[in-house]
Amino acid sequence: MSEPVLQVEKREGTAILTLNRPKAMNALSRELRSALVDTFAQLSADDTTGAVILTGSGRAFCAGLDLKELGGETGGGAEAADAIGSGADIIKAMAACDRPIIGAINGFAITGGFELALACDVLIASTEARFADTHARVGILPGWGLSQRLSRTIGIYRAKELSLTGNYLAAEQAAEWGLVSRVVPPHELLSTAETLAQDMLSCVPTVMRTYKRVIDDGFAETFRDGLALETAANREHSLALTPELIAERRQSVQARGRTQTG
Fold this sequence. Notes:
By secondary structure, this protein is an alpha/beta fold.
C-alpha cells in the first residue's frame, strides 16, 4: 500500500501537514492538490486544531505543479488551465482557514511551491531552504497570487529581480529581505515551528483568529480603510468584554511575561 501524498499528524492542538512526494520534490499532482484543499477545509471545522504547520518531505518543500503529469509523461495528464485553477483553490482554502498556518520550509520552494509558501501566515526556513520564481523561465504566468504577494512582502524591486530572472534566493538572504521570520538548522525546523504554534495556541483562540482576519483583510486595503476595518472589529469585540474578564487575562499575560523574562 502506497503512502498518502499528504501526511496529516495532529498533536497538542497543532496539525502538521507534510507534502509527501519526495521523489517528485513534492510537486503538486492532481491528487495532492485535491488533498490539500480537502484537508484545509476539514481543519477549519476541527475544534481540536488551533494551528497548522505545512512542510515537505525530502529535500524540497514543493517544486510547484507536477509538469510531468501536465505533459502526460506519468499518465492521467491534465489541462494546464485546470491545474492552475485547482492550484488557486489551494490558496483560497488556505486563506479561508482561520487557523494560523506556519510554513516550515525545509528545502526548495519553487514557482507554485513558492506561491504555496507565500500563502502561509508565518515562514520559518531551514538553512537548506531555497526560493525561486521560475514562471518566466518555464513560460507561464503566475495564477495563485505570487506577482502581488511577493512584491508586498519584500518590495517591488527585489520581487522583480527574483521573478524576472528566475534566480534562487538562499534562506539567509530571504531572512534579510523579510520573507522568512527566521532561519534554523534542518534538525530544529519542525520543533521551532511547533514551539511557535504553541505560543499562538496560548492566546485567546477567538481573538487570535479574528486578529488574523483583520491583518489579512486590512493588508488588502488602503491604510485608511485598514484602520477603519480594525476599528470596526475592535468595537464589535469590545461589546463582549467585562471588567472581570479583562482582569483575568491581564493576570495571565503578566504571569507569562515573568516566565519569559526570567
